[in-house]
Amino acid sequence: MMPDASVVVLRRFINHFDAQVAKSALDAAGIESMIRADDCGGTRPHLWLGGVELVVRAEDAVEADTLLATQAEPSSGPGSAESPNIR
User: The domain spanning residue 64 has which CATH number?
Assistant: First the structure.
């Protein structure tokens, strides 16, 4: 990510794992993102005050938000709980 790019906080998470899962979804879609947290790189989680932030470039924010909202919805495809082929 370019250091002079304007970034916005897309989501706040309560832990690094959830933030990394969301970042992975954005990475797979080709959207650059970064995880930002004020906990000494995870070595001092008790210093956590504002959550773990997932940030993206401002121009990617709408697309990234749409992607994460879509990822959160349950699938209705083959192999899902809603599929009539499940017994």
Answer: 3.30.70.1530
d(CA 24, CA 15): 15
The encoded tokens of residue 38 equal 């004020």
Q: Which residue, 1, 2, 18, 3, is CA-closest to 54?
A: 18
Number of independent structural domains in the chain: 1
Question: Left, alpha or beta for 72 (phi > 0: left; psi -120 to 50: alpha)?
Answer: alpha
Distance CA 33, CA 28 (A): 11
Q: Do the beta carbons of residue 11 and residue 18 sit within 8 Å?
A: no
Write out pLDDT tens, residues 31-48: 999 998 876 655 565 655
